Structures are given as structure tokens and as C-alpha cells.
Amino acid sequence: MIVLDQKNRIFTLHTQNTTYQMKADQYNVLLHTYYGSRIDGFDLSALIQYGDRSFTPNPSEAGSNRNYSLDVMPQEYSTCGVGDFRLPSIELELANGSHTADMRYEGFRLEKGKYAMEGLPGFYSNEDETETLVITLKDAAAQVDMELYYSVFEDYDLITRTVRVVNQGTEEIRLCRCASLCLDFLRTDMDFITFNACHLMERCMDRGALRSGIQSVGSVRGISSHQHNPFVILCDRGADEDTGICYGAMLLYSGNFEAAVECSQYENSRLVMGIHPYHFCWTLEAGQAFTAPEAAMICSPDGFGQMSRQYHKAIRRHLLRDPYTGRRKPVLVNNWEATYFDFTADRLADIAREAAALGIELFVMDDGWFGSRNNDNCSLGDWQVNLDKLPGGLEALVSRIKNMGMKFGIWMEPEMVNEDSDLYRAHPDWALQVPGRAPSRGRGQLVLDFSRKDVRDHIYDQMKKVLSCVEISYLKWDMNRSLTDVWSVTLPARRQGEVYHRYVLGIYDLLERLHRDYPHILIEGCCGGGGRFDGGMLYYTPQIWCSDDTDAVDRLRIQYGTSFCYPVCTMGAHVSAVPNEQNGRVTPLKTRGITAMSGAFGYEMDLGKCTAEEKMEIRRQVESYKIYYDLLHDGDYYRLSSPFQDGIYTAWEHVSANRREALVSVVYDRNGAAPLFGTLRLKGLDPAFQYQINRTDSFYSGEILMKAGYPLPQMKGDYSAVQIYLRASE
Length: 730
Ligand code: DGJ
Hints:
19% of the residues lie in helices and 30% in strands. The protein is α+β, with helices and mostly antiparallel strands. It has three domains: 2-50 and 64-318, Beta-galactosidase, Chain A, domain 5, CATH 2.70.98; 332-415 and 461-480 and 522-637, Aldolase class I (TIM Barrel, Alpha-Beta Barrel), CATH 3.20.20.70; 649-728, Sandwich (Immunoglobulin-like).
């Protein structure tokens, strides 16, 4: 609900549990007055304290009033060069060389439904599900208008926002910074939580207290990156899964980003999040506009668990465009770890046949099917079937797969080119490269200039030939390097700062075309695993390969970190062979199954090499996944312990909306000789219900399970796992 107090120019956005407020003051400065637990009916600007503080300038309108300074007041969208020395949200370069920006309140409008953003991903809704507030600001001297958009998804405590900047002058201006979100707090006693690490170990949670100065995470790799994720949290120092206020900030963007927090001199802090200012400079000619990517905030007064569950629901219902919405996704088998580049049609058919017999429904042919790609040094860009490997082409292979009753999926890496490819030989200038410099390779490949429509059109034509020649149900869109040598032949020198962003817009354009032309194809995003696991990609690819690390124990950490924002249905997760290909660890098959089941589930191994006993276990896993699918994918997700802190085991739980069913998964760490005699306290159940355990005659009340816990079974061997299914008796 959006409440307007027009007389006092106060704008209050209420969600179910939270309130967000701003106010235009006597000098038309838009103040941010509050964000937190819901408070009704107040002007919260009374919380702002004014006083004379040295070295904090006073705007000219304040006259001799030295108590008024932009440098200490909470701003809704911070400016630069005019007296607020903290993190700016916008920076303009005007024709006269000035770098100031001073945006003042002009007006507002209310709209039904969600604002629209052309060419950019965002949460969507029906007209009657959301309301939008648009605040208009103006920098009169710069002749720049700005619109701040806020859409309120009440039930999810979600507020989405974006910013549109318009050059109303007659001269060209340059936008050097344009954040999507600015959030000021009158406090610094908070922790900053980020999700970091590297390829093969993405989104590990890192938590630290705010300290003086600026702390930030970001990416200048052209992708949102394995190293840092465009989702961060600010929270009470003591916040945990169930208590404490926490603020989630998610940027729906797949390229360079920055999330920075500054603690400033008078116990206030500011979070600014948006496109990274590194090599970003967007020219706006007279009349032109720029729209920043969407940011999505959820505040939870009750800890991380509630925040995550709200994100999960909002993402599932209002961000994903999944052809399987309302239906179960097929269980897949992917040949990558089973064969790498070394396969023939017969070998693939063997894997598919084994898989079909175990209840697996979709066969995915990974890298190596095109050009002369027998290793990763050639052929990217040549999306024609390698007839030596696949005689009879895709048609013959797909017909064999279909005859086994399976669907077929295929791998592509559309953004890339190898120098050893027909495409590169014909169009060497299509790769990103700086004149006079030999471009850096990554995995032996170069990056196509996706900021160019002609390049995208050519790739799309090739893709269409592949996707239209046979029945394809699934596409894995991979991307296997960071961007370097970012320079485009199509843009003049002064506009080269647009290439990174235009590249991302180019990907979105192609993905949108795919979505339009092949709405039935399930697209799984991938970037060497989880290098582009962000809300922007999720709008186009409703699941993303979570990591190239398929080891079940490492995956506990990766999936745990990922779950703070993203729902399990978005996390591609496969059971693979042991010793694990990435780290050599041996874990029980059951553990691998239980871990992967909390994701978009599949297998990535040569099933023909499994023993009869292993095949029986796989059959059981596939059946369980199908049975528990709704619970796993639509249920509420509870983290019961942390793989980073709680050593002995990692546990999590899925609970159905009506609380009548729950599935608890526990993966034990290395085992000691002394058994564990502990109980595990569950969450989210109905205290009054009696729950039957694993369909046996053992029953516990919800109250006991939540207050006293469930006695954990004692297990033998390292990394064992159990799944406990609870069903409320009638
Ligand atoms: C990286 C992906 O993450 C893998 O799953 C696989 O598809 C390879 N690329 C293929 O080159």
C-alpha cells in the first residue's frame, strides 16, 4: 500500500511487515526517513537531527542556517559535488565539464501495477497486484530530470526500484554513475553480508561488522561473477535465521556491478548498489533517457530465514518465466562429466538408454557436438553439427533419444568465438578487442561483441537453425570467460564507456528473442557454473547451473549461500560420479542425491558404469524427487544449520504452505567414533499437528519437533545423509 501525505509531501510504502518512507523537505531535498518494521501513520522525518557540524557545507537556500547540511541527512538518492561527500548515486559530466548533480523534488505520480523497463529484466505483476510510485526530481542547472520508480509487492515485503534519467537540455551530457539503489540509515551498528569466492566455490557467505569508511563488493569482469554476487544483506549485529532486522538488496543485473556501504562521520551509513562505475560512461544526447537496472529490496524484521523465503516466493511467482510453471520439470542427465569432448552418437545413446531405464526424462548433450570441437581450443562460433561424431546429424540422434521416451536438450555458448573457427576467420573484428593490442584469451577463446546487433543477429540465425531442426526442450546457455579488451568498433571514442552495459543489453536482447520464439524451451543459464547467477539472468533462464563443482560436500556451502536470495528451483544441481571430478572426494551416492535434490535435479555421470545396487539407489532418488517435487520446489525453505559454522552436519528443511508436510535433509560431516546423541530442532511446522515420521508408526507433535527437536539418527561413515519426511496425521 502506498500512502501519500500530499500536504507534508510524505510518501510511505507499506508492505505486509515493513514500511519505507521518504519526504520532500522545505528545500525540495528528498529525504529518506525510514525503512524497517512496519509503522503506521507517522512522519518519521522527526528522527533526523539537525545541528551545526563543521566541514559539512550548507546549501545556498539554507542561508545563514548552518544546521542544514546534505552531508549528514539521509538522502533518498544521493547526489555529488554539492555538499554530500558520502557515496554518490549519480554523477554527471555536463557539457561545461562540471561533475556535479543536484537533484531536487519536483512531483510524483501513482500508477497501477508494476513499472515497465524495456530491454531490462525485472519482476512482473498483474495490474492489481502492485502499485507504483514515481517521484520526479530535477537538476535545473544541468537540465536533467530523474524519475525514481518504486513498485510495492505487499505480500512479499518486496519493493522494486529503478531510476530513469532524462537529458532535457540541448547539449550532450555524460552519465558517469547511475545507481539503482541508495539506502541511508541513521545507524552503523550493522553487519554487511556478502556472497563471494571463486569458480568452483561460489557464493560463500561472508559477514562482518560495518566499520568506518567504504566496504564494497563488485565485479569488473563483464559478468556478475563467481567472485561476488549482486545480492547483499545489511542486518542487526545479532541477527540470525529467526531474529533481528535484515535488509536484502538484490540487483537484477548480469554485468559489472558494485554494492558499497559507507559508514560516515555521524553514525550513519549508506548502501549504494548499481552498475559499477568502472569504465561506465553513458552519453545522453538532448532528449535521451537512460534506465538503470532494477534493484529489489526485502526487509525482514524476523531474521534471514523470513527474508529468504520472501525472496524465494517473489522470484518464483514474479520473476521466473519458466515453461514448466505449474508442472514438474523433467529429471535430466547431462553427458559432460561422463564424456567431456570424447563421445559418439552411440555413446550418448547408451547414456540416455541407461538413464531412461532409471526414470530420467531429459537427455542433455553438452559441449563438443559442433564444428570440429574435440577440445576447448576451437569451433566456438560455428554452430553446425559435427557429422563425424553425430552421423545423420541432430535429426538421427534426437530420434533415437525420443524413441527411448526422452526429451532432448543441447548446450551452446553463443557469446564466444575461437580464433580457430570459420566465424572468426570470416569476421575477426566481431571479437571484442582494443586497436593495437592483441586481445587476452580466456579458456582459449575470445568474446563476441554482443553490443552489436549484426553480431547478435548472425548468432541468432545459427541458433535458430539448430533449435528448429529437431524437437529441443532444453538449452544450456554457457559462457566461459571474463571480459577483457572491452572496445567496440561500432562506437566512437567518447562512447566506449557504454560497451560493457551494451554487451549485457545485447545478451538480454538475444535471450528475449529466444523466449519469444521458443517459449517451450527451458533455458538453463551457465557461466562456468555459477559465474552469472543473478536476478537478471533468472528472468530469462529460470534455472542456472549453480557451480562446476559437483562434489556434494562443497555443494552444501555453495547451495547454502545461494539460498539466501535464490530459490532452490533455480539452482541446477546434479549427482556426479566419485571420486569427484573436481576435488577427488568420495561421498555416498545417497548423500549426492539428497544434496542435488534441493535444486533443479539431474545426473551427470556415465550411468552405464553404475553397479546394480547403485542403479537401484538412483531409481529411488528419481522417484523421491518426483514425489517430493512440489515440496522441494514450492515449499518454504528453512536453513537449520550452517555448513560454514556448525561442523557436525548441515541440515535444511522444506515445509508445505499448509504445514502438513515437511522434508528434512541432513548431511553429516566426517564421522568420529563417538556417536552423535543430538536432536535437531525443526522449524515452520504447526505446533498442534502430529507428524508421522517417514511413513512409519513413529509420531511427534510439531511442538516437540520445534522446541525439543528430532533425535538425529547415528550414521556410519563419512558424509552420510538422511532425509526425514513428515506428514501431519488427519
Ligand atoms: C562449463 C560448464 O559449467 C560445464 O558444465 C560444461 O558445460 C562446460 N562448460 C562445457 O565446456
